[in-house]
Description:
Elements: E1 6-11, H1 16-22, E2 34-37, E3 43-47, E4 50-51, H2 96-106, E5 110-114, H3 128-146, E6 153-158, H4 164-177, E7 181-185, H5 200-209, E8 213-216, H6 243-263, H7 266-269, E9 275-277, H8 284-299, H9 309-316, E10 317-321, H10 328-335, E11 340-342, H11 355-362, H12 368-383
Parallel strand pairs: 1-5, 5-6, 6-7, 7-8, 8-9, 9-10, 10-11
Antiparallel strand pairs: 2-3, 3-4
Helix pairs in contact: 1-3, 3-4, 4-5
Amino acid sequence: MKDVVVDIDGHVAEPITLIMDEYLEPEFKDRPLRLLNDEKGLEYLEINGKKSVMVQGGAGLGVDAGKAFGAEDFLPFFTPGKVHYYDGMIPEANEPDARARWHEGEGVDKALLYPTLGLSWEDECADPRVAAAYCRAYNNWILDFCKSHPDRHYPVAHIPTRDVEEAVAEVRRTANLGVKGFMVYSTATNGLYYGNRYFDPVYEAVQQTGLPFAIHPTTHVDYLGKDTHRGDGGTSGNLSDDFYYITVVIPFQTQLALIHMISEGAFDRFPHLKYVLLETGATWIAYWLERLDEKFESEGHSTTFKEKPSDYFQRQCWISLEPEEELIPFVVQKVGADRFFWATDFPHHDGFPGVVGRIRELLKSLPEEDVRKIMGQNGVEVYDLR
């Protein structure tokens, strides 16, 4: 196989006004997902006719639309009223030709694409029918976006999690339309954990497609550790700009999702489900698997799952690494190169300019075959990007 470079987790800054105008079904036109300004002129997200709790205050929205990528000073983007979402947007964030040129310049051959605003609204949309309609509108748009460069841009469908029937329907619909994978919130928006049998119809549908099912970091009103954290949301007033939320909540929610899939037997019931962990770093996976295996030896009598936790991971899980993780070569040697991807996170402000070179530098002590796998072969095989 030719050496190929695959960005497993890039983003678009979706033009939400256009998507709601042109892709939202008529039945839901009276309650679109909207960006509005409050009486002080501060931008906020309106979700199903209600002001967002998480996305408001006039700051933080424009920071992930592109202009802050690689910036030396993020503060203007987190200053209330200074940079609105569309003000912070660059063509590479949501114009196919511009994005393709950016990928070519960065040395990226293929990229899986995820939303930006889509990471921050679903938890606050209590109506499962509206949530599903928003997902369908976005998914149809990203499918159209990727048609211009079908060998470089690959759509990942946003699957709603409040209602299992809506989720199954969207898995099947988008698989038939040509998506290359599925994304869900890091914690299901109906209060259940992903190992719960309630979600079995989703896993059955996903397993039948052969496509990967990815957990991506997202915002949640009732987030893990809320009872012990009383932060004010950092400089912007939003939790998404909160040091505790970024460093503690996001990775722990992902880890919790994985342990529930193992401990509640989901991987036993669906042994061919491809399960991907994104944007939480990857060095922790060696510690996590080692601890789970150790406790399985002593406490396995109290469990209902059948295999060592690391066996499930080795059989059907993958994780995305980041270029600042200096211990990654040791972790790869411990866990195995077959289990790793990498990502740009472009155009988000905490992404990594020049990431292809940085990843290669990070991995230079590994055998060339391992580097080829992580840089692209794994992505091509797992997501079927041939």
